[in-house]
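Before the break, one more example. Copy the sequence into your notebook; we will annotate it together after we see the structure.
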Amino acid sequence: MAQRLIPGDAHQMAQWLARGTYLSDGTLVRMATIRDLEAAAKRAKNRMLIVWAGRGLLWLATLFFAVGTVVAVVSTLTDSWPESGTAYAVGGTLFYTVPFVGLLWWTVRDAQRLRTKE
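Here is what the structure looks like once it is written out:
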């Protein structure tokens, strides 16, 4: 097995068992079997894969709407929208800017959370 599921040092092991924490399925850690610990480690790994995939999608969506916002603002300033008119310029700019602001807020919070974890 490539990963160590339990501490190797006896003192650390005693502290780990005395913690009284629970696994995600409700099993007390000190009462868990090796099979329970392996299943908990696998669930934690799968959860982290989902978190990182969601984080990647968040950052990609933020990048997409950032580029769209820049293009919309430049198109508005140069009056180069395919259909000329104020409604198209305002609507197109808002279409990209409003989601970008929300996604940017989430992305900044995510970056701060990552920074505080390390």
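The CA atoms of residues 7 and 16 lie 8 Å apart. The mean pLDDT is 84. Try to locate both features in your own notes.
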